[in-house]
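Fill in residues.
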């Protein structure tokens, strides 16, 4: 067998350059780019391997390790998990910065390959710069923190260990049932150590994403439940999108007359104008889905994680309702005590459609009535014109109506995801991109870069609040560096408006959630609102920026921004507290059991009353 002598880092780059995935006969190169923030622990290892060439991987210069990893996650999500951008960091704080992004990717079932540097495997120069020492074990390093947030973790302590580590990393990254963050920690001395690798290790490898079919027994069990249902409801989850099963779900619902509701990850898979689309469901859902869901006797959850936001903390559905969990992931398929149907979403839906045998639901006209009523409510929110200023829902409506059907909307945290799941009317398929499994503040500003890299021919509009912007916006500079026009829509409501709303709704006065000066007399944060000019901040990075206070200013800025050669930031000053309310929903949060505040006492009593009406599992 022929051998190739390479350093471990050189072998890693060469291996990644030869990875491909295949689905339905279409082959895609899995790694075309790699993100990095160089420091000791990677710059003379992976950095050297990348710089000497001989591969087809483009280097992207991140500005913050967490933020570049969030961009990489967004890229993989927009690519429907068919392509990734690995992320390289130095040791210590550089590595630790990526832990949050790892948790985000794992929560959302998105493949993310993290390659943090690590301390010396030989231990000779210990303790090195940025090394945290653990007195219980010399073998433990800070990268062990990744174990708790990754689907696969390995530390490569000898160069030959790369062979098994890299192959198993790819196994997880390309498995739709078991994907998430993967970490290969790389001691900095091992990165530079050489080994005679077998040439076969570097052959072109095609990882086949074969569709798992529904078995005859599974089909029988699912149809036995469905055909006894009078008012079934489908929940369209992110797995439908990743399986590219939108048409299959549409055909199934249309043939049986079954309405479908959307999760945040599933929204945009089918048109908002589909006659059976009752919109967002759950805590951030709309009225149509949330008034129909409690009537459903069978719920078919397709590709959904069934989070508390989708189920309204298990309160939204009848206690005697049956669930069918159609999911490629066994862990998710059995949630809500469902009949677990473990298969690919597209293959499973096609099998169920063929087995309907004339079955029809008995919903009748109430589905269309609920949709019509909800569309009228959305129109009212989009027309919410106030003399005192620009409301959040009005601003969202202006942008939504301005965007073309091919434009992509990005979101993640704060009050905007609720407004968007309820109100936003997505255009073409895969043009609604919401990270709401982790609700990671900062994803919107940085993930927009990843989405634009994944879809360079599309206009990308990302929606976030001032609180998110303050946390993480480093990759705005990368957008400038890469000449990527992204539209950053910043809704400035002077604080964390979503959390203030939650705080107030559970009986608490506003405390610590608004950006104010400290009051010199009381010593509390109750002074004047902090006047922040986000437009000037963005201009300093090289973006084109607009300060907006009226509907006309927003309309004019959007039109001009579309022709800019640079990324654009819209600093939209919106009225606080003008987000959408909840509709026929409930969310369980940890309200204080004892309090001196009467409103908190009432909130706890309300919590207990709702708990009585929820399903146990």
């Amino acid at each position: 067998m022929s051998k190739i002598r390479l350093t471990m880092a050189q072998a890693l780059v060469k291996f990644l350059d030869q990875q491909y995935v295949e689905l339905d006969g279409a082959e895609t190169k899995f790694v075309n780019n790699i993100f990095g923030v160089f420091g000791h622990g990677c710059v003379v290892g992976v950095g050297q391997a990348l710089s000497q060439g001989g591969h087809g991987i483009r280097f992207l210069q991140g500005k913050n390790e967490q933020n570049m990893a969030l961009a990489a996650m967004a890229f993989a999500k927009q690519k429907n998990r068919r392509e990734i951008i690995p992320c390289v960091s130095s040791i210590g704080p550089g590595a630790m910065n990526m832990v949050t992004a790892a948790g985000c990717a794992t929560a959302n079932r998105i493949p993310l390959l993290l390659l943090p540097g690590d301390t010396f495997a030989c231990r000779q120069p210990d303790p090195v710069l940025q090394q945290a020492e653990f007195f219980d074990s010399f073998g433990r390093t800070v990268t062990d923190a990744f174990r708790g947030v990754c689907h696969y973790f390995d530390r490569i302590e000898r160069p030959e260990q790369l062979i098994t580590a890299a192959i198993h990393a790819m196994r997880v990254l390309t498995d739709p049932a078991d994907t998430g963050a993967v970490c290969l920690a790389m001691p900095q001395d091992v990165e530079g150590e050489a080994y005679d690798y077998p040439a076969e290790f570097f052959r072109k490898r095609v990882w086949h994403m074969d569709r798992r079919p529904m078995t005859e027994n599974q089909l029988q069990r699912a149809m036995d439940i469905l055909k006894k249902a009078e008012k079934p409801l489908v929940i369209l989850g992110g797995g439908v999108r990743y399986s590219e099963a939108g048409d299959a779900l549409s055909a199934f619902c249309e043939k049986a007359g079954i309405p479908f509701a959307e999760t945040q990850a599933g929204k945009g898979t089918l048109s908002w104008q589909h006659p059976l689309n009752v919109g967002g469901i759950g805590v951030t859902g709309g009225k149509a889905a949330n008034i129909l869901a409690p009537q459903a006797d069978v719920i078919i959850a397709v590709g959904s994680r069934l989070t508390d936001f989708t189920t309204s903390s298990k309160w939204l559905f009848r206690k005697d309702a049956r669930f069918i969990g159609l999911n490629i992931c066994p862990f998710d398929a059995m949630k809500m005590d469902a009949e677990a149907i473990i298969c690919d979403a597209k293959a499973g839906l096609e099998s169920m459609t063929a087995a309907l045998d004339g079955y029809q639901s008995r919903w009748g006209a109430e589905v269309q009535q609920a949709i019509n009523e909800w569309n009228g409510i959305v129109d009212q929110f989009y027309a919410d014109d106030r003399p005192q200023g620009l409301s959040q829902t009005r601003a969202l409506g202006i942008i939504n109506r301005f965007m073309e059907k091919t434009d992509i909307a990005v979101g993640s945290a704060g009050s905007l995801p609720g407004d968007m799941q309820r109100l936003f009317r997505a255009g073409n398929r895969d043009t609604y991109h919401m990270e709401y499994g982790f609700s990671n503040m900062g994803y919107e500003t940085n993930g927009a870069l990843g989405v634009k890299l994944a879809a360079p021919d599309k206009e990308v509009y990302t929606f976030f609040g001032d609180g998110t912007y303050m946390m993480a916006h480093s990759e705005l500079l990368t957008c400038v560096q890469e000449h990527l026009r992204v539209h950053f829509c910043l809704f400035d409501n002077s604080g964390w408006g979503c959390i203030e709303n939650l705080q107030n709704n559970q009986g608490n006065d506003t405390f610590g959630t608004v950006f104010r000066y400290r009051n010199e007399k009381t010593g509390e944060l109750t002074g004047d609102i902090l006047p922040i000019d986000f437009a000037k901040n963005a201009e300093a990075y090289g973006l084109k920026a607009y300060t907006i206070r009226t509907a006309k200013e927003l309309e004019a800025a959007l039109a001009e921004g579309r022709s800019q050669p640079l990324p654009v930031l819209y600093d939209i000053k919106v009225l606080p507290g003008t987000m959408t309310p909840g509709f026929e929903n409930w969310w369980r949060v940890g309200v204080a059991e004892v309090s001196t505040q009467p409103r908190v006492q009432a909130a706890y009593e309300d919590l207990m009353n709702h708990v009585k009406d929820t399903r146990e599992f």
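DSSP finds 24 helices and 25 strands in the chain.
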